[in-house]
Known about the structure:
The structure is a homotetramer. Chain A is α/β, with parallel strands linked by helices. Chain A has eight helices and 13 strands.
Amino acid sequence: MVILIQCKDKVGLVASIAGVMAQKNINIVSMREHVDIAANRFFARLVSDHHIDSGDLMHELQRALPADAFISVNPEPEKKIVVLVTKEYHCLSDILVRNHFKTLGATVQCVIGNHPTLKNICDRFELPFYEISHEKKSKEDFESGLLKVINKYLPDYLVLAKFMRILSPEFVKRFPMHIINIHHSFLPAFAGANPYKQAYKRGVKLIGATAHFVTNDLDEGPIIEQQIIHVNHTFTASDMIKAGKEIETAVLARALKLVFEDRVFVYNNKTVVFE
Amino acid sequence: MVILIQCKDKVGLVASIAGVMAQKNINIVSMREHVDIAANRFFARLVSDHHIDSGDLMHELQRALPADAFISVNPEPEKKIVVLVTKEYHCLSDILVRNHFKTLGATVQCVIGNHPTLKNICDRFELPFYEISHEKKSKEDFESGLLKVINKYLPDYLVLAKFMRILSPEFVKRFPMHIINIHHSFLPAFAGANPYKQAYKRGVKLIGATAHFVTNDLDEGPIIEQQIIHVNHTFTASDMIKAGKEIETAVLARALKLVFEDRVFVYNNKTVVFE
Amino acid sequence: MVILIQCKDKVGLVASIAGVMAQKNINIVSMREHVDIAANRFFARLVSDHHIDSGDLMHELQRALPADAFISVNPEPEKKIVVLVTKEYHCLSDILVRNHFKTLGATVQCVIGNHPTLKNICDRFELPFYEISHEKKSKEDFESGLLKVINKYLPDYLVLAKFMRILSPEFVKRFPMHIINIHHSFLPAFAGANPYKQAYKRGVKLIGATAHFVTNDLDEGPIIEQQIIHVNHTFTASDMIKAGKEIETAVLARALKLVFEDRVFVYNNKTVVFE
Amino acid sequence: MVILIQCKDKVGLVASIAGVMAQKNINIVSMREHVDIAANRFFARLVSDHHIDSGDLMHELQRALPADAFISVNPEPEKKIVVLVTKEYHCLSDILVRNHFKTLGATVQCVIGNHPTLKNICDRFELPFYEISHEKKSKEDFESGLLKVINKYLPDYLVLAKFMRILSPEFVKRFPMHIINIHHSFLPAFAGANPYKQAYKRGVKLIGATAHFVTNDLDEGPIIEQQIIHVNHTFTASDMIKAGKEIETAVLARALKLVFEDRVFVYNNKTVVFE
Lengths: 275, 275, 275, 275
């Protein structure tokens, strides 16, 4: 059982939380706590091996903690997700394989592509694939098409696994901090289009990838995970893209694991990640 | 102010600890907690920005916690160390520079060498250097010479910064978990002598270094930190030694920082490191 | 077009090779050369963007180089492989996905499992899966069963993608330096069984994986690639296994890429890898 | 003996070079060659264990190669450098220690500081320290002060080891591709001032450092080496600065080693680095 708490910091928060747990005789197997002193913000993630009624525990925690506290007791352990893609297979395939072998920590409900390219791989894993083209229609119409599918499934998260369309603020605000994107660069370097071409031209010795929550500001949402790999002068722009795909796959997989295990808190456009 | 606690695990430990802190109105800025379920062992490290009487807090914690609990309130923030060396300069120099600029997190009291090679660099930093040769004498006599110097300083830790003599069990047991060694390999690979030669012959693609506490079993003490660097077919055994020195310096520096900041707990020949 | 040369070192080898290339007006796009001075051995890998008759070029190179030279002109660019597995899916799935999207650099001809577990995933990619159980039969009979399948396909390489049986020297010598294994540890640490359990017990801070060619000495063949990931005290033995799978997948993928692109030379139980 | 060649690419360059070497009976111990196909540019670095008259070899190579070729035979193996600093000690100390123990691959002739802070550490290593303040004078006057000192020493390279002044284009063009700077960020992210504050605010999970040649465009010169380290939500801006110093020291040390061993070529504002 996982318990998540975020609130304004004050003396005695840990005691209040732990007091509730002790009173209910719940053993705390792991507790991570963080205070952002500058922001005066408190974060905690507790894991227990007991399984009690979460409504009751929630009630007790609400009584013990400040009124503004965000508390989540026993969040859905098996998240449901909808994956949005365009043409590139590497991130999607990794997700489909983990989903198939039940090691994703979430269940893929369906995949939506604005191109038909990746229907075949979804078929092989018997997962519904919806082709919703963005062509010859307004962004509003395109997104209304997406929403029609998404609303059928009510997913916990949308995962943009190399989805190459920019979503409107109206769309994004329907899923606040519940859309996860993989960006093909070490943000904030090379934000925007063609990062590998930029990287090649600049002669960098590292390339990276960034998984982040999507907000209205393109590529500016809270960063969940970043990793890099070394490149050198023998890499053409195309080699950098290939190397980039490997790191993109790894970073998105890692970010999803962290989010699905309820290890990520968001505030002030940043994340607290209890790894 | 740092508080360290280690004891057998049971329900309510966090509540007891946090209760004491809250009652004394001490704000917890950072709390790290770990339970080794298999070993039924509880570890906690708390940081507060308050500075109260530590004897009093200690007393309250002792009352609130099991009798077997190891509790440390406000351990000496500026450790005192004696460094033992032989001929290689890289780890010692790094320590001397950080000591000089007061960023080591500890104070070097003196350096002992079983060769005179490194006297010069100690002189430059105006640090006492004692040459105690191991030649033409028994290990007992050699170690009694070491002890005579060490006992003058009563250091918190002994740091073996490429000290190439094996210490006797009798010596080691005088400083249990207070001797830190840097081992020139990714333990447990290549334990013992000439690890780089072994690594070269085996054609490895990585070499590493390990910082660990010294116990009676050579190279078998609790591991504090390990890192590696990539090597390839162009590395001769001598190139591997050079690359190894870089990683040895980095790993020892990192391990010392962790130990000096009281982030390392030892049990069952392993460590819990709250980074 | 790729050209590979390995021979005893002597003055003028590069001139001889380059002379042949220049005389035939073949532009060298990339040339990597290595001399192991201790072993007096010369290695070269040339890439050209010309495509000429390889028999003719081979003949000229043989005339220009010492009689003992191993020369390979234009090795099969698309390797054929047979993959051997037991029950774990992670390495196989990665290979199947890359094979499906034609980015493996090789073609998977079939998969052989000594358990039926992974038949399903092979079916999904329409790849032949042969179940050859090792149970209730001698190693000789088991391997003769493997050979019957392998001989149908005449693959360039056998890939042991978490194949948990030890192959006999008789089997191995049929495919010298053409069997690639992924070992679940940073060899030579924790060679043999249960490396993660050993790693957990030892309290290591890194775990690794090693891809190597299979020789008669278990886990002692030439190393192609090694990588590590950091672990800490929160990892149970089971968490280490999970983290290990990620690194195993990455290391095997990288090693296969290097081998399939003809970047790996073997000698003295070591490799030269022109990355 | 090292030989460096850079010129427009054409068929037969390697043969011409190797022919000259063979004719003079010079054994090539290591040869690295690279062609940038897009830029039609050829680079080679040869190492021989012979020591012959370099003027003669130079003459032969000039005859054999295109007129535009840049050829360097036996560049000064022990570079001379002048180090420019402000107040931060970490990069300078690392250089001074390596210089002292003769493992820098170069000789530090003197150190120039625009603050007196680092005089003390230079004194300890008996190295001339010149304080040249930038205060209350024009940039022209400041730089003319620098030049007066530099011209006394005629160094091969200027190393900016956390020198916090921006040099004028007039100054830079006197030392084209012979000024090496360490930049406190993973360029091109966070170019300019206060990168760690920017990184902290953005909530990045990695911070890096970049060593590059100095050109007229601030922070836009050819990149020699880049590395990163992982950070997380527990890092304050000040912790990021501390972590950054570690990586800055490591990256500058690595870049200097590469440059001093004549492994770095520059063209099109990028580098070819034969590691």
